[in-house]
């Protein structure tokens, strides 16, 4: 958390502006404060502080769960929010940073953008070649060039159980606990099902379910389930995630929870029958 829909929402708000602040697109950095040096994965704080001022934002996008901010000198600012990261605008007049701000970006008109991260797991890179950071990511699930046939071929090569595989960013970029659980429910597939056992129709069903839940998440500006991410309401439309013990919206069977790879997984035992054996 945040996952693909939440990061996509933040990217759109940074491009276009939001109720919380102006657009970042087109702005020029005036200064930057590094309040928690370990937030910077690359370069070192002194280089970061020296290099960023004077750079103008030319484009903003997303890759998997990474925010991508392109600068006018060809460099790319990459931000991974991880468990508790967020970006928060603070209007002028300037005041003290928000609690838990790890980086603060300053602009000429007095606005400031803070990288806020209570748990300190988030990371930021300023690189010339983004592939040094993003090169191992799998396909984008919403990419029009990524087909159901491609997805099936990738499933056939793995004996990993579905839930664990969907969380592997090298297999598919952007999915996390929420949308993996929701997609498996929509597809009627148990999270412990080995990936290579899916038939072509089952793989196609899961492919479209992943796209459906991600597109729904984006339409609802993501899910707001704790203090970390604000502004979305997809949490009001969960079918299984965090609904353990509650009746399935489809059949009424109580939703169950089990732990797979140290991550909680939610499913309906009736709508998502367990794998044989």
From TrEMBL:
A Pfam family: Fapy_DNA_glyco
* Top-rank taxon, per record: Bacteria
Q: Which residues form the Formamidopyrimidine-DNA glycosylase catalytic domain?
A: 2-122
Catalytic site? 2-3, 65, 263
Q: Where is the FPG-type domain?
A: 239-273
Q: What is its EC number?
A: 3.2.2.23, 4.2.99.18
**Similarity field:** Belongs to the FPG family.
- Quaternary context: Monomer.
What's this chain's function?
Involved in base excision repair of DNA damaged by oxidation or by mutagenic agents. Acts as DNA glycosylase that recognizes and removes damaged bases. Has a preference for oxidized purines, such as 7,8-dihydro-8-oxoguanine (8-oxoG). Has AP (apurinic/apyrimidinic) lyase activity and introduces nicks in the DNA strand. Cleaves the DNA backbone by beta-delta elimination to generate a single-strand break at the site of the removed base with both 3'- and 5'-phosphates.
NCBIfam families, from UniProt? fpg (TIGR00577), PRK01103.1 (NF002211)
* The protein's name: Formamidopyrimidine-DNA glycosylase
Organism, as annotated: Thermanaerothrix daxensis
Q: What is the lineage of its organism?
A: Bacteria, Bacillati, Chloroflexota, Anaerolineae, Anaerolineales
Its gene name is mutM
